[in-house]
Design brief:
With 370 residues, the protein is of the alpha+beta class. The chain is built from 14 helices and 10 strands.
């Protein structure tokens, strides 16, 4: 792809800019056959566009808009999604600390074809310091995940199996360029105590005295060397949650978005994060064993003998306290909108309920990692 001008804001997107996107990718054949949108090979002719903001209250590190396109070329999609850096400086600074923009552009440039899960087609991408742009396939025809509503039992199994395929494909062989989880874990853990305190305050979610004591000790003790690698290393998404997932309209396959925090790290982080904060507590108790078992079967089907079922359970519980970082971050960052505030309360309630339910096992497992 040729050099793409990065819009400062969505106001900089016009018909000429969109036309340039499709001129740049007109002859591209970069996307693997598994992806839903075939390469564009015809001459682009964008007549007019209209913009609609999307993802307000559910995305915090970046900004999204849907661009409706009128064109004389029937090969050009009727809409695309454009992703830019967050307009809020604090959010941009946080994204920079985690290399989020660089990670996602790098993923679409180098790794999207390699993952065994569905991802949206990327028509164009560019990065310049803390500014970036992604032009992505619009998935509006597929069913969007809704984290506030929560996953159904069927969704839970579909999601953990897709996650296991991703982890199994890169088991102990994730690209070295993505080996940033150690830094990310250290950054997250260093700020976890304050973040949890703020999240509990703004959401008014209550915790037991036993959980409060454990979290106090956990967040104030440095992680031991080897914590990330304890149960294997793979390519992990890090923010595998329903608001970053779609379900294919024809076959229900999971389509995974928002690869800003993809890295080489602990696979069980994804599993803990998803089951803790995306499944209502009552349903999680009923489907948790089936979900962990389904994950283990699919993981071992992708990479033979990757983990025993007992090791998956231990890893899942071991990483639950660290996985509290994501719902706590959502709760703190989402307060500016009613939608975001509701999401924050919901995910913190679910995550705390999961931690309370597994607390005895979590305490025992984490005695060996601090």
């Amino acid at each position: 792809m040729s050099k793409l001008r990065i819009p400062v804001s969505f106001a900089d997107i016009d018909s000429a800019w969109v036309n340039g996107v499709f001129e740049a990718c007109r002859s591209s054949a970069e996307q693997a056959p598994r992806h839903a949108c075939a390469p564009l090979r015809a001459e682009p002719m964008v007549a007019s566009i209209a913009l609609e903001r999307v993802g307000v209250g559910t995305g915090f590190m970046s900004s999204l808009t849907r661009v409706y396109i009128e064109s004389k070329n029937d090969k050009i999609p009727s809409s695309i999604v454009v992703k830019l850096c967050a307009q809020d400086k604090q959010a941009r600074d946080l994204a920079t600390a985690f290399n989020s923009y660089r990670n996602e552009v790098g993923f679409y440039a180098n790794y999207a074809q390699l993952v065994p899960v569905l991802v949206p087609r990327c028509y164009a991408h560019a990065l310049d310091g803390d500014r970036f742009v992604l032009v992505l396939e619009d998935l509006h025809e597929h069913r969007a995940g809704n984290q506030v509503a929560g996953a159904t039992a069927a969704d839970v199994i579909s999601c953990v199996e897709a996650m296991a395929e991703l982890h199994g494909a890169f088991w102990n062989s994730a690209p070295s360029a993505m080996a940033s989880m150690r830094k990310s874990s250290a950054v997250a853990h260093a700020g976890l105590a304050e973040l949890i305190e703020q999240a509990l305050a703004v959401t008014e979610v209550a915790v037991s005295e036993a959980l409060a004591q454990f979290l106090c000790a956990y967040t104030r003790t440095p992680l031991v060397q080897g914590f990330v690698e304890r149960y294997g290393v793979s390519l992990v998404h890090t923010d595998f949650r329903l608001d970053n997932l779609f379900f294919h309209a024809s076959n229900g396959q999971v389509i995974v978005l928002d690869w800003q925090d993809v890295c080489a790290g602990a696979p069980a982080f994804d599993l803990a994060h998803f089951l803790m904060s995306n499944v209502n507590p009552g349903l999680r108790k009923r489907v948790e064993y089936d979900a962990v078992s389904a994950y283990q079967r699919r993981l071992n089907g992708t990479f033979n003998n990757a983990m025993s079922l007992s090791d998956v359970w231990d890893a899942y519980r071991c990483y639950m306290p660290m996985a509290l970082y994501i719902p706590a971050l959502i709760a703190v960052r989402a307060q500016s909108t009613d939608t975001g505030a509701e999401l924050g309360r919901t995910v913190m309630h679910r995550a705390v309920a999961a931690l309370e339910f597994h607390l005895d096992a979590i305490v025992q497992l984490n005695e060996h990692v601090h």
